[in-house]
Amino acid sequence: MFSPFHDAGEAPKELAEVRREDLSQLRDAEEGFALEFKVAWTASVRRKIPKIIASFSNSRGGWIVIGIADADKSVCPFSRPSADLSQTIGELCRRHVSPVPRFDVRFLADPTDDGRGVAVIRVEEGDFPPYVADGIVGIREGSTSGPATGGTLVELYEKAAGRRRAVSEFFRRTVYYPTSLDAVERPVPLFDLYLLRMGQPREILSSSRAAENERADAMRESFSQQGMECHVQHAHDSLILRASPAFSSPEAHSALELFSDDSLKLSIPAVLLEGAQRTAALEKLRGLRLHVTDDALLVDAHSTLHRVTRMASLLDRYARLRTITWQGYAVAYELEGLAGALLWSDDEIYLSYVRTRGILFCGTTDCRSRVRYLDDGAHESFRARQFAGSHFFEACGLPLGSHDPQDVELVDALLSTSLETRDET
């Protein structure tokens, strides 16, 4: 994406890299398709901001600089608003634009007066246009914004449809796990967490070896901070990182697929009860007068949750190391090879629950969640760990969000129980 700011090597700067002294680079810049200046943060500008942001989102994205005179590009600091500028602009967009565009804001304070400064807004090209501001679909036309014509509207809708197809394709990615011959009919039972970074179409992304190594090093550090080893494999368009050497043992371990745009897929094998533990669990369930077949798969709720949340915490560490915000991601989960598996816990609250309401289990063969787009302004506190832990249980039938007291008690018991498990990965 275009940037009016560059580093010493003439490489475009991201908004997070822009400093106060970089404003001098705007002296020779002109308002245009991807750049607009406003001299002050006035009531008139506040009324126009949603339409300008929407028009950039419907076009190729752009930058708005508030506190720069268009005529001579002189810096005209304005008083820092009492309310957070990012939240104020976000609220303006939520009131006037649908869907909510994706943007970021920085306030560059005057070095001699922290209470005054210049605001820089970076607007992303929208993934799902058209973005409608007060009933109007605006696009950039030269240095101004104007209403879209019929042909342009068709193009915007086609772009959104194409992006939805790309999202759907990404959520069909599957990491390879070797299986023994006697396991061919029963694939490795997996909980998958997909995090697709929205923005540039994925099919035109490319990555240098240096950039690939940088991502791999950040992921190795994330593993290290979790007290885990990281083993890297190079796939044709991604890196696959595992918690143990690939194919070194018949036991399946967690795997991460990492792409050049920092999109991620986390695949976590469910922990199944085996041997004496499984026999004891079957006996207890039958003692509750529940019909359970001898070949039933029993998922250890606490051990699997521990594995899921630990690996998802690793993603949060990676995001911090890479200074990534989750707001630019689409997220979904899926269960693979777990159809019909029963959720097991020896917690007395769980046993009491299943005695009266039946056992929780993975009831369909396509346990995939709806896609959540985290750039709609409603997910400021999103964390991969929170999403993964709660939604693993949701896929198994745990009634999240229920107002029934017994449901709430069960959710608290399974999500809050101290997790002591023999398996760390």
TrEMBL record:
<dbReference type="InterPro" id="IPR038461">
    <property type="entry name" value="Schlafen_AlbA_2_dom_sf"/>
</dbReference>
<keyword id="KW-0067">ATP-binding</keyword>
<dbReference type="Pfam" id="PF04326">
    <property type="entry name" value="SLFN_AlbA_2"/>
</dbReference>
<protein>
    <submittedName>
        <fullName>ATP-binding protein</fullName>
    </submittedName>
</protein>
<dbReference type="GO" id="GO:0005524">
    <property type="term" value="F:ATP binding"/>
</dbReference>
<keyword id="KW-0547">Nucleotide-binding</keyword>
<dbReference type="InterPro" id="IPR007421">
    <property type="entry name" value="Schlafen_AlbA_2_dom"/>
</dbReference>
<feature type="domain" description="Schlafen AlbA-2">
    <location>
        <begin position="34"/>
        <end position="148"/>
    </location>
</feature>
